[in-house]
């Protein structure tokens, strides 16, 4: 194997060309990788944003439903207190009416006792 300078220079040129080709291919792969990473990041953002918006929307709906439930409980409580108040009024009224009825019955009985018997008057 005789090594001549011309052969060494030719081999060096060939190696240099291959190195440039590999360097160009590596740069191309790096560029493609960067493009893919940007696309993946964009896809993630695009996919994440709707998911986050959807989740935020669902959370807002849950809060709205909670607020509606709170208002419904307040309405129910108010209605319950009104019913209880009315019931207490009716119970008091019923008690007073029973007392009046009792007094009325007593006065009728007293009035009957004060009246002379029809039989007693007829026999006289």
TrEMBL record:
Domain of life: Eukaryota
Positions in coiled-coil regions: 80-107
Alphabetical UniProt keywords: Coiled coil
Keyword Amino-acid biosynthesis among UniProt keywords: no
InterPro entries membership: SIKE
Keyword tRNA processing on entry: no
Family that this chain belongs to: Belongs to the SIKE family.
Protein name as it appears in the record: Suppressor of IKBKE 1
Taxonomic lineage: Eukaryota, Metazoa, Chordata, Craniata, Vertebrata
